[in-house]
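Quick one, probably user error.
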């Protein structure tokens, strides 16, 4: 199959952010965190209307929703998961501060309310050498269990539609790792779901209705769509921009929303060059 090569046009639908992360599609709306400002937004992609939904004194990252509609949000620095109720009130849902000394990161929530939360494992911003890290399961009651380990910086994660398959990225290993989710949330059947091109630095993941996974390769400035096994079927280039995260339009597999920024260093993102762009394949 020929790879579709796309270079984003100037279809920026919102900008002025520091480091937009955790892109999600829910009920026709984009949700995302601005990691280095503590803001959580929703964005109407058709009108460009932007709403600030929440501000936290932390670095917000991944998010997901429980069956009752309340949102779970990863609080990176305090290493906790925040629950945001429909009325806007909040409560701490889970606390991982005793389990890891380094930030928590991406979060995905299944239909039964089990969350899967990755950890850094070391101080990446200081340039420390890589230490393998873990993914934890956060149950609906807020209890936390080790779900899987031996990740080279676990990052984006998705659940393939119509399945119980969880796919997790390694930022510093060219692999997407797959698991099956048991009814109690336990992960089984660990395997290499896809082998990525050498040099890929996977950050956020997204999945379309056909189970094809988009990989945000942050340091190589591109977004890759891959099938199980690793065939690259589309590639979106973001020259001179970090390819941070992405999400597929829930109405159209050929529309991808991508987030980009100028740097991973918080002090360098105060210029607010982060943006959300729409890409039509």
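Nope, works fine. Designed sequence:
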């Amino acid at each position: 199959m020929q790879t579709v090569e796309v270079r984003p046009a100037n279809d920026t639908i919102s900008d002025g952010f520091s480091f937009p992360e955790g892109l999600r599609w829910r009920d026709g709306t984009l949700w995302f965190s601005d990691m280095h400002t503590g803001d959580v937004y929703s964005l109407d992609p058709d009108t460009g209307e932007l709403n600030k939904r929440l501000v936290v004194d932390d670095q917000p990252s991944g998010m997901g929703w429980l069956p009752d509609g309340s949102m779970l949000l990863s609080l990176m620095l305090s290493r906790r998961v925040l629950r945001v109720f429909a009325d806007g009130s909040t409560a701490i849902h889970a606390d991982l501060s005793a389990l890891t000394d380094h930030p928590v990161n991406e979060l995905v929530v299944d239909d039964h309310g089990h969350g899967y939360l990755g950890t850094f494992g070391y101080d990446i911003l200081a340039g420390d050498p890589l230490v393998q890290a873990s993914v934890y399961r956060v149950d609906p009651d807020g209890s936390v269990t080790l779900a899987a380990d031996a990740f080279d910086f676990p990052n984006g994660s998705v659940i393939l539609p119509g399945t119980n398959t969880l796919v997790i990225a390694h930022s510093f290993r060219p692999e997407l790792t797959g698991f099956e989710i048991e009814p109690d949330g336990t992960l089984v059947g660990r395997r290499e779901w896809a082998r990525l091109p050498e040099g890929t630095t996977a950050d956020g993941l997204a999945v379309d209705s056909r189970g094809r996974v988009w990989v945000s390769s942050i340091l190589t400035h591109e977004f890759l769509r891959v099938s199980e096994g690793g065939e690259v079927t589309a590639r979106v280039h973001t020259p001179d921009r970090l390819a941070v995260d992405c999400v597929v339009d829930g109405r159209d597999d050929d529309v991808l929303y991508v987030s980009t920024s100028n740097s991973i260093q918080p002090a360098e993102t105060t210029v607010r060059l982060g943006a959300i762009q729409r890409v039509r394949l």
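The mean pLDDT is 96.
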